[in-house]
Write a structure and sequence with these properties.
The protein is α+β, with helices and mostly antiparallel strands and about 210 residues long. The chain has 6 helices and 6 strands. It has a 4-stranded mixed beta sheet with strand order 4-3-5-6, covered by helices on one side. A two-stranded antiparallel sheet has the order 1-2. Helix 2 crosses helix 4. The termini are far apart.
Length: about 210
Amino acid sequence: MGLAFLITSENLQILSERKVLKQSEYSALLDAGSLLSTAQTERQRILDEAQQGYERKLREGHAQGVEQGKREYAQQACGAALDAARTLDGLRETIAGIVVKAVRTIVGESDPRVLYETALRRIDALVREEAFLVVRVAPACREAVAAALQHVWPERMASVTPAATPPIRIVTDSRLSEEQCIVETPSGTLDVGLDAQIDALRAAIRQRTA
């Protein structure tokens, strides 16, 4: 006897060689059809879940990729910023060096007395009320400093007795360079020499170009 029906992966088919089904065969056919329908539904559900899982993983991978890209971009941006900062720092140093070199060249051609006069005038307000001043310089600079003091504070250099005129004493110190000038007062010590002024100039240039 030939088969009354055949279950395939997609359909339940009645075979052409059998036109009439017995009751038992018909019941079996209904059961088989129900099973096949259930199986197909379950198959589709599994496929749908697999597709959804695939898409979810794809999105997660994309998100991770984007996040990784952001991190890499941030690292690259940070590296570029650091490189730019180093370049800018180097540029500041270069600018400061050029200006300082130019200043030293100009200063080298200037009268030392004039330089000391400028420095002393800048601290006049700070030392005006001090009881006494001690100006320490290199031995070779004593005459230039004395001339500058006489020109800037003539009344103080003229007499040491009046209370309103603080005494000023020049002390030579062989440990100092010719570009140093230390002014000592009861309140503290000031460095008004060329080296100190150059350092202040260099710091100002760095700050202005920051």
